[in-house]
Design a protein that fits this description.
The complex is a heterodimer.
Chain A: E1 2-5, E2 15-21, E3 28-29, E4 34-39, E5 44-48, E6 53-58, E7 64-67, E8 71-76, H1 87-96, H2 125-134, H3 152-160, H4 164-186, E9 189-197, H5 199-210, H6 220-234, E10 240-243, E11 246-249, E12 255-257, E13 259-260, E14 266-267, E15 270-271, H7 279-295, E16 298-299, H8 300-304, E17 308-311, E18 331-335, E19 339-345, E20 348-362, H9 368-381, H10 385-390
Parallel strand pairs in A: 5-16, 12-17, 17-18
Antiparallel strand pairs in A: 1-8, 2-4, 2-7, 3-6, 4-5, 6-8, 9-20, 10-11, 12-15, 13-14, 18-20, 19-20
Helix pairs in contact in A: 2-3, 6-7, 6-9
Chain B: H1 3-17, H2 32-36, H3 40-54, H4 69-79
Helix pairs in contact in B: 1-3, 1-4
The chains are: A alpha+beta, B mainly alpha.
Chain lengths: 396, 81
Amino acid sequence: MFEFRMPSLGADMEAGKLTRWLVKPGDQVERGQIVAVVETEKSDIDVEIWASGEVAEIVVPEGQKVPVGTLLATLRTAGEEAVVVAPALVAAAVAAAPAAAGVATVAAPAPSAMPAPPGALRVSPAARRRAAELGVDLQSVAGSGPEGAVQIADVERAASAPGTRGDRAAAMRHAITAAVERSHREIPHYYLSTEIVLDRALAWLEQENLQRPVTERMLPAALLLKAVALALREVPELNGFFKEGALQASAAIHLGVAISLRDGGLVAPALHDADRKSLTELMSALRDLVRRARAGSLRGSEVTDATITVTNLGDRGVDAVFGVIYPPQVALVGLGRIRERPWAENGTVVARPVVTASLAADHRASDGHRGGLFLEALARLLQEPERLAQVAGGAP
Amino acid sequence: MNETELRAAVLGALGEIAPEADLSALDAQMPLREQLDLDSMDFLNVVVAIHRRTGIEIPEADYRKLATLADAIAYLTTRSP
């Protein structure tokens, strides 16, 4: 029997609301399948299950907020008999949960009201996306469609009611506050920066994009992210977590990409195995990640797995950014605006496209010398775009 | 496509990427990226959406010709069959 529990979807998450089940008892699920949607302070997250088997029982009904670690559902793995968990156990688990400061734990509904049948909330996919965009809690929306289904118009009506959107923005602000306060309190940052000339990289990109249809064109961000990922292979102490007083470097390189949401706030979901993706794969994954971050449909593994964060604020016009490390990560890479600047080489000054790359790193995990080697590797890798394109994945 | 249809296509594309924006308040002479807070990924998605709605090929070198609403409509008019 596999026990599917409320995952921790961020360093400061105490509880999550099970918004929707995507499976019901009797369904076969595969490891990695998205089985539920969980609402956190930051956004709705599609949560994967990390075992294969048959759903035996849904323990926590839709709409209920439970602490991290609470049993949500049980899974029968090959050759097992069903084990039924009494609803009373759930109520006990909820009651026993510590009422953490700032986290409202919703009281368990009366036993007669649970478990609610899976799929009780009828919502069209378009309305669900719109609700995520607008920060509307679907539980609070009265549906006007067939069988009470919630439609886009219902969501928009609810969004225009006072309170909802502001509440979501306040929750997002609260989550960001908790993370940056912890970072500032716990992490002794050091900062380095360097200017990197990008004429070769951009010329290569322009040629490459000439041969591509508009849907497959790449942004400079793809090259920059790939170079960051490969440079991290050379300085692994910048990639991982600082936990229990020690650095736990990660062999996998999952770049957390800072994405600003259109109605305010910030998320930094993981671009998995960025060092092993081709540029085309990386660009396509980045595009998908940005789209889903803004639509409010990130996956659990994406919000928890990032081993370092990259912020590309320069895209909005600043020359350099020195970031706040997202705990328990140990470094953050900042990329400024790519801009033509006077560049001295071989005794003359020429105009070249240049980016300021910065590193904010945890001094407990690495020293400035190693941080400097990382920026040097980043600069070197960006001078050889053909090689960046070739490493792993085959085609550029 | 005539100018009215092209304008509708551009506004439709912008609405896909910036659903919260009040497009009726756009200043046709001001840069779209600043008015709508579009980053380079957003802008690429706008170009893709315009291409999907009009069928017009837009090479990367011409992106700067789409800087304002007025520029974009003028450019697309010259490229429209």
